[in-house]
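ugh ok fine here u go
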Amino acid sequence: MKKVRPMLPLLCLVVLVPQFTFSLPKFASRTGAKCQSCHVNPTGKGMRSEFGSTYGRDDITMPTFKEQTDYDEFSTNLTSNISVGADVRTLFFYNQREKGSSFFEMQGDVYFDLRLNKKLRVYLDKGLYSGFELMAIAKVLPYEGYIKIGKFMPAYGTRIDDHNAFIRGGPFGGGPYAGLIPAGYPNGLRFGERSEDTGLELGFTPSFFSFQLGVFNGTPGAGLNGFTPAKRKAVALRGETSFRLREFNVSLGGSLYNYPDPTGTVTYYAAFGSVTILESLTFHTEVDILTKVQPGADFTGTILWNEVNYMVVPGVDLKFGYEYYDPDKEIQNGSFSRITLGAEIFPLSGLEIRPLYKINLEDLPSGSNIGNDELQLMFHFFL
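structure:
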């Protein structure tokens, strides 16, 4: 497949942020904080901790209406040992190819944090549809370490909230690419919505490092049938370091995920990181190599994800993103690219408005540039 196209936007971004090409979610990058500083789940995603709730209400919201709308005393605690949280996302979108629009309730999650004692808690994330996370978290290991057991998303790469991103679940044959991907193409990463897996994870966060090791059934999204007597399990590794260098917050990391497939063995390798300048301009990147060893021909694919966020004023960020997916480097055509332009606006505490325009580009044997761009307007309510 062509090699020049995915590099051009990357080179443009390198000019904007010289000498750094790495990524994390923008708020963690701007503050230099770890995921467990803001979330109950030590690897991020889902319910916010007390610090995360305070940061989300006081530090990322436009100050214009704060005095008129904020509670003087705000708490998510039901009792001294039980707290709640929520995320609701409603999307309006227009698809150029279909020449139609629709509303879609893309998320409705309710969280419960049950603190059994100072070291042990049970965490539940119940989604609007069939997905859920349920785990026990015991912070009993050295180096601020923990043991996590239950059903949850493996720790891998950059954890972002867009489950349609190529580094999450991606469309990979659906959405704007419906009917465009030939049969037999690899489907990319398996970390999208409702992809939680049952297993065990160990985590350590000494100083400015963090490390996670997880063992899972390898059946993401499975319900009552999500058990397996197979000898081989899925394994996830993730390591990251974060540090400050003058006016830069920098993070670098790597991941590995290996799982047995009925027709072979699949392994993902990721390098990721971020850099923030003056707590306002943040650059994220992740590169994934996908390999599958199987009888007959093996395959190697590539995913590239880049995102730049610039805080114009408190509560308003401009966003630029570029993604690229090459399922198999041995196939001459068949790559997919996506350019995202938009903004993230936090006008009130607990409300985000995210207008985005996504330009979808294809390099297919049947033809390129199908004309399937998308206009999206997302309303995100969070507690």
